[in-house]
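Hello forum,

I keep getting stuck at the same step: I have a sequence, I want structure tokens, and every attempt I make locally crashes halfway through. Rather than fight my setup again tonight, could one of you with a working pipeline run this one for me? It's a single chain of 171 residues.
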Amino acid sequence: GITSDGTYIYWTWYNPATNKGGLGRALIDGSAVEPTWKTLTDRFAEALTNDGTYLYWSNQTFGHISIGKCLLNGEAVQGRWVLTTEAKTSLSVQGGYIYFGQFESTPAIGRLLIAGEVLEEEWLPVEGGANWIAVDAFSVYWTTGIGFPAERRIGRATIAGSSPEPAWITV
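Reply #2:
Ran it on my machine without issues. Output:
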């Protein structure tokens, strides 16, 4: 995953030789590169986003699946902040929620209150699952069918989760 707060660009990394992973960062101009800035206990940090205060990432590690978080300065790491039941393919923050895509046994878009207390893993069912998502003040968007089946689609729904259009754009 990759995200930016306007000062830094952050990314997830994994090194199979050491079986470790975490977060890297660099200044937005490409200087001050820290490729292994934070090594995480949960080695498979994948999707990544931020809300201007915290970084949030999805974990898929043997024995658990979760969403982790830390402050933008790398402090206050909570690798297993919220435990989940399925891997999250992408994360996006908007209006007090972290939205996420999933496509394994429960194909849906889910959301989590930024405070971490309400997790809705099946908030918006999506046939074929949501590979990647984007959210703005009005809508949530997702991709399905990337790779398989041959027909690829971009769907959308209102930010309230109503009026879903699973084949809004077919590419």
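The mean pLDDT is 87. If your local run keeps crashing, start a new thread with the error log.
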